[in-house]
Design a protein that fits this description.
The complex is a heterodimer of chains A (about 70) and B (about 140). Chain A has one helix spanning about 20-25, and strands at about 1-5, 10, 35, 40, 55-60, 65. By secondary structure, chain A is mainly beta. Chain A has a five-stranded mixed beta sheet, with no helix packed on it. Chain B contains three helices and eight strands. Chain B starts with a strand and ends with a strand. A seven-stranded mixed beta barrel of chain B has the order 1-3-2-5-6-7-8. In chain B, a hairpin with a 2-residue loop joins strand 2 and strand 3 (about 35-45). Classes of the chains: A mainly beta (about 70), B alpha/beta (about 140). The interface between A and B is medium-sized, with 18 and 30 residues.
Chain lengths: ~70, ~140
């Protein structure tokens, strides 16, 4: 199936989960990554179960914050 | 590494930070990277969802929209900025702890004094390095 990840469309195995995609894409500091699928943010607790579908658009983002 | 920003964008950041006082302001910067120079081409003035004078968190939905816009315009993400309404322009312990990207520039605007102070930093594995910042009237 084809999935667009951070703007690039590639073929991935059927039934791929978000957690597996994070591993496949060698996402840096995965413990801090936030994932959106088709503009909807996904709870990190569901990464292992959430499966991706043909045509999905996935974005990886990192929390940006701080304090005085 | 040097980061260059136009005077116009710098003034937009000051105006944004002043408008949200007493809270911290934040945003993203996109542009080009060549050799040892980052050039800011676009500044995204975003919402601090903490609405706090002591903390900031960039609105993730606005962050996502900004990242998509950067990609559409062929710009590279360069880093982020935030303001310190009443403290100096240096990364706090919290800023350092939450700086995950060693390639990003972390710019801090201090409004604590009579004149704004704007500085840029890199943070890698908790170690802070000052980055040269150029504010140009012709960028």
């Amino acid at each position: 199936m084809n999935i667009t990840v951070t703007g690039s469309t590639k073929e991935y195995p059927q039934g791929l989960t978000v957690a597996q995609l994070i591993q496949l894409e060698k996402v840096a500091t995965p413990e801090y990554v936030t994932v959106s699928i088709n503009d909807e943010f996904i709870l990190s607790a569901t990464f292992a179960e959430k499966t991706l579908n043909e045509g999905d658009h996935v974005e990886f983002m990192y929390f940006m914050g701080g304090g005085r | 590494m040097t980061i260059k920003i136009s005077l116009a964008d710098y003034e937009r950041i000051i105006a944004h930070a002043t408008a949200v006082l007493p809270n911290e302001a934040c945003g993203l910067m996109a542009g080009t990277v060549s050799d040892e120079v980052k050039t800011v081409k676009k500044v995204y003035l975003l919402t601090n969802i903490d609405h706090s004078p002591e903390h900031f968190s960039i609105d993730p939905r606005e962050q996502l929209a900004a990242v998509k816009d950067m990609r559409a315009q062929g710009l590279a993400p360069l880093g982020n900025f935030h303001s310190h309404p009443s403290t100096p322009a240096r990364p706090s312990q919290e800023d350092i702890r939450l700086a995950y990207d060693p390639f990003a520039s972390y710019l801090i605007l201090s409004l604590a004094g009579k004149q704004p102070v704007f500085k840029s930093f890199r943070v890698e594995k908790g170690v802070v390095a000052v980055e040269e910042l150029e504010i140009n009237s012709n960028e």
